[in-house]
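Hey all, quick one. A colleague (J.T.) asked me to put the adenosine-5'-triphosphate job into the tracker so the inputs and the structure tokens live in one place instead of scattered across chat threads. No bug as far as I know, just bookkeeping. Sequence used:
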Amino acid sequence: MIPSYVTAVTGRLRANGFDAYLAGGCVRDILMGRTPHDYDVATDALPDRVMSLFADHRTLLQGAAHGTVCVVSEGENIEITTYRSDGVYSDKRRPDTVTFSRTPEEDIARRDLTINAMMMDPDDGRIIDICGGREDLERGIIRSVGDPVERVEEDALRIMRALRFSSVLGFKIDKATSDALHDRKELLREIAVERIAEELTKLLTGKEPERVLCEYYDVLSVPIPEIAPCVGFDQKSRYHAYDVWTHIAKAVQASPPVKRVRLAMMLHDIEKPSYCNEYGGSRHFAGHDEASAVTAEKILTRLRFDKRTIADVTALVRYHELAPARTHAEMHCRLLYGKLGRELFCDLIDVAVADNVSKGAPNTRAGALIPLRDKVLEYVDNGGCTDISGLAINGNDVAALGIRGEDIGKALKYALDRVVSDEIEDRREPLLEAVASLKWR
Ligand code: ATP
Ligand code: MG
């Protein structure tokens, strides 16, 4: 079951009299019947010794202080880490000193969660499990190794890791661990935003984000304070049975587990509380989509997401209020296709479906969205034009009619609107004729 590029490495360590165990995430994955995405090996050999033992391989010393050597074995990376116990964490993130240790037990004690704190003998499959990781794995429980308060005080990223694994694996968090996450949430301020963003993304694209978002909104409000006003915010609307945050959590859960889609779901209604108007006993949120897009961009920029992700998520939030029943829905969607491109347009439909099925109220939109998408895709696949560059006329043609300056762009936009609404065919003659006799001029 264990690939040969791994056993080649553990075999050589053992042949030279050293320990070699599989450790951490890969053991968890193997015991769950999943294929690990990487293998970590724990050993009592010191980093220098590991380097010399694998002198005939490509190796990379990943910070001698942390004792990790990366060996390229049969073309695959494998990390070999010397048993260690961590010293004091004065920056709440990295130990100031590490002490190499002699036994696997000491190394296990520095790991974060019981399910991540097992080792496996690569030859006979024997498991070293001194903190009940196997039982927690079978019962579906996230539990801190040792005292949870001390462990998150050492390294606050463990707060986000616990939430991430809870969502990804669909495991409940043990009471004492959960209490520590809530109590010590403020420590997240000391963690690099990039690391928080990475864990948040995994949490959102996991199996049970709804439960984690609902139970730990207070923790998530530390890096994203914009969440707090949404929690419990009554929408007083016949279209909505849930408060804003509950609706958001359900919408995340209902959407496909794609990074930009799930981020968009988390942020799509984030400005509803500040765009709330009440009349006739019900609440309305005109303008919340644009405002949420602006805020989404701010939040994602603050968390240092990459430019592409920020642009995509912002667009999905901006246009999430698709109304397929509207008279011009199809025309509107053709133009959105032109703006977003095929992939993001299809994601937008997924966003709108997830939004509409998560309102807890009778809803006619959700069912209409997929047929609407398919009609637009069919239009495009038949050569239908969705943006100005796809028109049978261009700026030069318009200029030749004596139209100048800004009016050229307006004329082309006018032509595009007539084409996507099927009023004029996308051919030169009818388009030039229409532009020449423009009514807006
Ligand atoms: P993934 O599937 O995301 O790789 P993983 O559990 O393997 O999950 P890694 O970040 O690769 O996560 O870490 C490998 C192992 O190192 C973990 O299983 C855990 O034992 C230990 N570890 C990682 N981060 C921490 C941390 N912040 N505190 C304590 N132990 C940690
Ligand atoms: Mg890993």
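Adding what we noticed when we looked at it: Residues 140-223 form a domain with the Hydrophobic Seed Protein fold (CATH 1.10.110.30). Residues 205 and 258 are 6 Å apart (CA to CA).
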